[in-house]
# Entry
Amino acid sequence: MKYDFAAIESKWQHFWQANGTFAAANPGQCGFEADRPKFYVLDMFPYPSGVGLHVGHPLGYIATDIVARYKRMCGAAVLHPMGYDAFGLPAEQFAVEHGVHPRITTEQNITNMTRQLKRLGLSYDWDRCLTTTDPDYHRWTQWIFLQLYNSWFDPTAGAARPIEQLRQKLEAEVLYVGPEDELIDSPAEGLGAVTGMPIGARKWHELSANQRTAVIANHRLAYMDEIDVNWCPALGTVLANEEVTNEGRSERGNHPVFKRPLRQWMLRITVYAHRLLEDLELVKWPDPIKTMQRNWIGRSEGALVDFAVVDRDDLIRVFTTRPDTLFGATYMVLAPEHPLVEDVTSNSQHQKVDQYCRQAVQRSEIDRAAETKSKTGVFTGACAINPVSGQRLPIWIADYVMMGYGTGAIMAVPAHDQRDHDFARTFGLPIIQVVAEDSVDVQVEAFEGEGTCVNSANDEVSLNSLTTAEAKHAITQWLDMKGLGKTQVQYKLRDWLFSRQRYWGEPFPILHGPDGEIVALDEAELPVELPEMEDFAPCASEDPNEPVQTPLSRAPDSWKAVDRDGKRYTRELNTMPQWAGSCWYYLRFIDPANSERFVGREAEQYWMVSDKKDGHPHAGGVDLYVGGAEHAVLHLLYARFWHKVLHDLGHVSTPEPFGRLFNQGYIQAYAYTDERGVYVPAEEVKEDGQRFVCNGQQVRQEKLGKMGKSLKNAVAPDEICERFGCDSLRLYEMYLGPLDQDKAWSTKDIVGQSRFLHRLWRNFVNEETNELLVSDKPAGEDLRRMLHSTIKRVTDDMETMSYNTAIAALIELNNELISAKTTPRDVAETMVLLLSPIAPHISEELWQRLGHDQSLAYETWPIYDKALLVQQQVQYPVQVNGRLRGRITIATDADDKAIESSALAEQAVKDAIGDNPVRKVIIVRNKMVNIVAK
Ligand code: ANZ
# Structure
C-alpha cells in the first residue's frame, strides 16, 4: 500500500476524537494525578471570521501543538484548549454586510473554523472549547465587571479592595474627602496644605447623600465619566486611542475620527500602572514586547510646581521632568482644554483664544504632538510668576500641550526643550540658558541633555555648578519646603474607555435610575443576555455632533426597562468592547463547565501555579502563550490588569496571567497587482517565463506581504491538506525557518516535505505487499550512534522550539535508512516517536503497524545514551621512515600525545624501529602518523 495520507489522517483524527485522547483531567475528576507536573500551553484564540483560516494562522497553532504533544510524552499533564473570541466589530460587520443575525453567522463561522482546525490534527481538548458570546461565558465576564465596579484601589495596600472597605474607612474617619473628592489621610495633609490653598477636607458625615455616592463612584475601578472620546460617526462608535491611527482615522475601515465629549464607562487601569510596570520583571516575555508595554505605560519622574497667576487667586500647576531648569522658564502654556483658560484670558484676547481652542480640540493628539509641525498658539493676556525668580511669565495657549498628560499645563524652557524652542522662536519669546553646554548655541537650538546649572540662583537657593541630578533634587526639596511643589511620578497610560455603541458585545450588568442613579445588578441576576433584535446595525451618521444613539436604544421595553422598588430603570445601552472577553478566557478554559464560579479554586491552582524551583522570580500562570506581536499593548495589558484585580480580590492565585510569551512570525506571500495597481487574487496568477499573468493580463509581482484578505494572497489550509496531507503541511510550516521570524510561503515547495514522508513510509512498509520492513535484529553500531545523536538533536530542538532543525535531523536519519533493506525495530520505533509531535498522523499509523494497540500520544519520549554520543574512532596508517608498517584505531578526539604513544606501542611499528632512536613523530590529524627513527 502506498502512503495514503488522506485515509490515515482521517482515521486518526476520528480515533483521537472517539477516544478522548487529548482530554485533560481536573482535580477531582477521573484520571487526575495530582503529582503529575502540569503544562498549560495556550494559543491566542481567533475571531470566527467569515473567510476562515489561511495557512498563516496555523503557524502558531502547529507550534503549540508540537509543544503539547512533546510535553505529554515527557510525562506532563497538558492543558491545551481552543476557543473563539466572537463578540466585536469583525463578527458584527460581517453580519451587517450579509444581513444575517451575528449569532447565526458567528455560529456558522465557528463551525467552519472548527472543521479547519480539526483537519490540522491539533491536539486540543475540544471538550473545553468556549465562545465568548455564549451566555454561560459572558455571564462571568459580566461578573468580573461587577468585581471591578464593586472595588477601589486602596493606596495603602497598593491593591484593589471591596468598595465597602472604603465606605468603612470614611465612616470611621480613617480617611477624609479632600477638594476634588480626592481621598486624604488626615485633614491636615494633602496638597491643599502644601500649597497653602484652603484645605477643604471634609468628614464623611458632613457630606450629603449625593456627595457620598459621588465620592464612592469616583473611586470605583469601573466608573462613568464624561470625557473627550474618539467618535467615529461612520462606524457609529467610540474607539480607544489604540484603535485610532496616526492620521486620526479608525484602524478598522479607515474612517475619520472626531473628538467629542461623551459619558462613558471607564476602567481605572491607571492605578495599576506601577504594578503593571514592575511585574514585567516576573515574566519570561520577548524583550521587544516588554519594551512596548513599558513605553505604553510611560513612567516619568519629575515634579509638580505651582505658579501663581498675576492679580488672581488661581494657581497653575505644571508637571515637569526638568525642575532643574526652573530658572530658565520664560513663558507658560495651557492646553486648549485646560479649565483655567476661561478664567485667565483677558477680555481683549477672548475672541482669539476662543477661536484657537475650538480648532485645536478637533486635531488628533498624534498630529498635535508631531515634532515636525510648526508651532501655533495664542497669548491669553495674563501672566504668572516664576516661583524661584519672581519673574513674570506670559501665559499662552498652544495645542502642543495635551490636556490628558501631566496637568495639562507646562512651564516652557526654550533653551532646553526643542518644542518650547520652536515655539519661542515663532513668537519671539526669550531664551535663557540654565544648563551649561559649550558645543550648542541655545539661541539656535535647544540643548536637551544634562550638564551643570548656570544662571540659577535667588537669595535663598543656588543651583549653580550643581549637576542636573543634584539640581533636580535640591530644587524639589526647596519647593517642597516652601509649599510650592513636590516630586511626582507620572504615567502616560490612560484609563481604559470601556463602552462601545454596538449591538454585538456583552451587555453591562447596570441599570440607570430616573434620577441618574446607577445600580449594579446582583450576581444572581446574571447573565444579562442581548435582546433579540431585527435591526442590530450601528447608528452611524454623517454628523459628528448628532446625539449618540446605540443599537440597544432600539431594543423593546421588555428588555430595556426594569421596574424595581417602585421605580422604572433603564438598562445600560452601551455594550462592552471586544477586548473584554479575551481578558480572562485563559481562566475559563481551566474549568469551562463550572456553573458556581468563573473558575473552580482547586482547578485554577493546579493549572496556574507552577512549582518551578529554578531560583528565578516566577509569576506562574499559563506556561506558554503563543500569538502575534500585534497584541503587545492592548490585549496583553488589559488581561494583566483584570488578572491583577482578580488576584487582589482573592479570586486567582498568581500575580500574572501569562508566565511565558512567545511571538510567532508572520507567513508572507507575494501579492500581485494589475495595471491600475489593484490587487488580483494571487492564486489565479500564473508564471509565464519572466512574466506573471492573471486571466490573460500581465500583472506585477509586488513585495512579499503578510498573508491575508487585504493583499489577496491568502492560501487556505484545506486545499493544501487535500493535495499533500496535513502532516506535510505541518512539516512544511515548521521547516520554513525559526518560528519567531517572518517567512515566505510557496505552495510548490511543500513537495519536499511530502517526499520525505513518502520515503519514510517506504522505509517502513513494502508498498506492493504491504509488509512491514522492520527487523528484530538490533541496529549496528554506526546506526545506533546516529539514532542517539538524532534523539539528542530533536530533544534539544523541542526544548527551544527550533522545529526546523529538528526536522532536518529526522530527514538525515531517514536518508540513512534508505540504503538498508529493513529497518531495525529499535530505530524504527524511536524514530516514529521523535517524529510524532510534528507529523502525528503518519506516526500513529506506523506505531500501530509496529504492533502497538494504544495511541503513541502518552508513550515516553526517547532518551539518548550519552555513551553513544562519544565521538567515533579513526584509523591511522603508521609509517616508519616512509614505509607503512601498521595501523592504529583511536578515538577521533584523542590528543597528539595519545596518538603518538598508541602508534609507538603497536608491535609491527616497534619491530620496524628496532633499536634506532626515535627522532621525530609527525602526526597529520585524521590521516597518518609518520615516525622518523634512525
Ligand atoms: C519643563 C522642561 C524643561 C521640560 C526641559 C522638558 C525639558 P515626558 O518625559 O514625556 O514625561 N509636558 C508636561 N506636560 C505636558 C503636556 N500635557 N503636554 C505636552 N508636554 C507636556 O515629558 C514631560 C515633559 O513634557 C515636561 O517637562 C514638560 O516639559 C512637558 F528642559 O517641563 B518639561
Notes: Residues 300, 319-322, 325, 335, 401-402, 405-406, 408, 410-411, 413, 416-417, 490 surround ANZ (CB under 6 Å). The longest helix spans residues 781-800. The two ends are 69 Å apart (CA to CA).
